[in-house]
Write a structure and sequence with these properties.
Blueprint (H helix, E strand, L loop, with lengths): L1 E8 L2 H14 L4 E8 L10 H18 L3 E7 L8 H14 L3 E5 L6 H18 L14 E5 L12 E4 L4 H8 L3 H4 L7 H16 L4 E5 L15
Parallel strand pairs: 1-2, 1-4, 2-3, 4-5
Antiparallel strand pairs: 5-7, 6-7
The structure holds zinc ion.
The site of zinc ion (ZN) has 6 residues, from strand 1.
């Protein structure tokens, strides 16, 4: 199985789904973390160029710690646009990596890059799946798309699928600490504590010690039955 996680800024994919990724990679599955921007504008002391370089190195270290591959798109923090060019570029990554499952941002966010990423990924999966869009790589349809939790994307998020990440929890926190953002000193938001606590809450709700929860597309909620289950 291959899982592709697409985040707006380096660090998003790991926070939203890093424990899920590690849960799978330790079982022999593979994963790619695709960062649409490096998120280089958020540092209180460093300029965008310098912080972007730091975040790229952090993203490579975090991906290695999660047993995943990091991929980067060349777009800039805060300037991500939902254009056909970007959607086809992401579709090409989907066709190239051929994931079974894609995880990305929920649709409602306080951050414009997150909202736009949700839109880009939805259309990119369509472009990746339809053979008539002639690209270098052959068409590819994913088995499912899941929307992850992010403190900036809470509005209307309804957790539907819970993944047991109990055995990956500790390793996931270590991977997050590859980023200064999670070690502290970049943002006043308590990143590490928030995602730790969220895994505890989702675990409690689902009967696991720790869990990561996902929303699913409206169509995926449909059940087709001949009779009610006995
Ligand atoms: Zn972000």
């Amino acid at each position: 199985m291959h899982i592709l996680v697409i985040g707006a800024h380096a660090g998003d994919a790991e926070a939203m789904a890093g424990a899920t990724v590690l849960q799978h990679t330790t079982r022999g599955h593979t994963a790619t973390l695709l960062h649409l921007t490096l998120g280089g504008k958020g540092h209180p002391a460093l300029g965008e160029e310098e912080y972007s370089q730091q975040k790229q190195a952090e993203a490579l270290a975090a991906a290695a710690a999660l047993g995943a591959e990091a991929r980067f798109m060349p777009y800039r923090d805060g300037e991500l646009l939902s254009t056909e060019e970007v959607k086809f570029a992401v579709a090409d990554v989907v066709r190239g990596t051929r994931p079974d499952y894609v995880i990305t941002h929920w649709e409602n966010s306080i951050h414009k890059d997150h909202t736009v990423t949700h839109q880009i990924v939805g259309d990119a999966l369509f472009y990746a799946a339809v053979r008539a869009f002639a690209r270098e790589q052959p068409a590819h349809s994913v088995r499912g798309v899941y929307y992850a939790e992010n403190w900036e994307d809470p509005f209307g998020f309804q957790p539907e699928v819970y993944i047991d990440v109990s055995s990956a929890y500790k390793g996931w926190l270590e991977a997050l600490k590859c980023y200064q953002l999670f070690r502290g000193g970049v943002s006043r938001f308590p990143y590490l504590e928030y995602y730790q606590a969220l895994a505890v809450i989702r675990g409690a709700e689902s009967g696991f010690k720790y869990a990561q929860a996902y929303a699913i597309p409206a169509l995926a909620r449909r059940r087709r039955l001949e009779t009610f289950p006995l």
